[in-house]
């Protein structure tokens, strides 16, 4: 079993790299952002609630995302492994994820952190928004808030995984293929 957390700020390219890693290593992709967008599209009560929060660029509650991830882990308990993309984003989420996985004897193998220059992020996301059409990628205030949320609530998780000896930093600057190769090399070393 290979359980990877793909870690990095918004706009670092986690979604693209996660999709490529899933294909290479035959893993299941868990993106809480994608799951929340699916709820919005389906018009569920959870989606209606989440949409308001996501439009502001702030994090939805730990309870909501932990609940979604718990049910997905349950549904896919016999898979080859998982890639977590955009989860965990807070200490409470990281602790909950460890509990969920350790109790099933399938702990996190490694956290791969994409190292990018945070000063460039807002520009990168706004550019991506033009192509993706994602509402929260197009509003500058929302994008800035998302980066702030990352810096204050998510970046500190690096220490959490470092203390567990599971943090592996990968250069997140370069072409999509270069970054993918670095991620694959890191996985081949740790697995
Ligand atoms: P993403 O697609 O990962 O950039 O997520 C888009 C938005 O969904 C974020 O700005 C948050 O509002 C919400 N979101 C996604 N994942 C999480 C999470 N793990 N915890 C809290 N909010 C999340």
Description of the molecule:
By secondary structure, the chain is an alpha/beta fold. The protein has a single domain (4-190), classed as Rossmann fold, CATH 3.40.50. Helix content is 59%, strand content 12%. The protein contains 9 helices and 5 strands. A 5-stranded parallel β-sheet has the order 2-3-1-4-5. α2 (32-42) crosses α3 (45-56), α4 packs parallel to α5 (91-102) and α6 (118-132) packs across α7 (140-154). The protein is globular and about 40 Å long. The protein starts with a strand and ends with a helix. 31% of the residues are buried. The mean pLDDT is 96. It binds adenosine monophosphate (AMP). Adenosine monophosphate is lined by residues 10, 32-33, 36, 53-54, 57, 59-60, 65, 86-87, 89, 93, 136, 146.
What strand order characterises the main sheet?
2-3-1-4-5
**Shape assignment:** globular
Name the hetero compounds present.
adenosine monophosphate
Kindly estimate the percentage of residues that lie in beta strands according to DSSP: 5-15%
The main pleated sheet reads as:
5 strands, parallel
Strand runs, count: 5
Mean pLDDT over the full residue set: 96
**Named CATH architecture:** 3-Layer(aba) Sandwich
- The arrangement of helices and strands along the chain is EHEHHHEHEHHHEH
CATH fold naming: Rossmann fold
Taken together, the total number of domains comes to 1
pLDDT < 50 stretches: none
The tally of helices reads 9
Beginning-to-end CA distance, first to last residue = 9 Å
Specify the structural class.
alpha/beta
Helix content: 55-70%
Return the CATH class: Alpha Beta
The CATH homologous superfamily: P-loop containing nucleotide triphosphate hydrolases
Report Rg: 16 Å
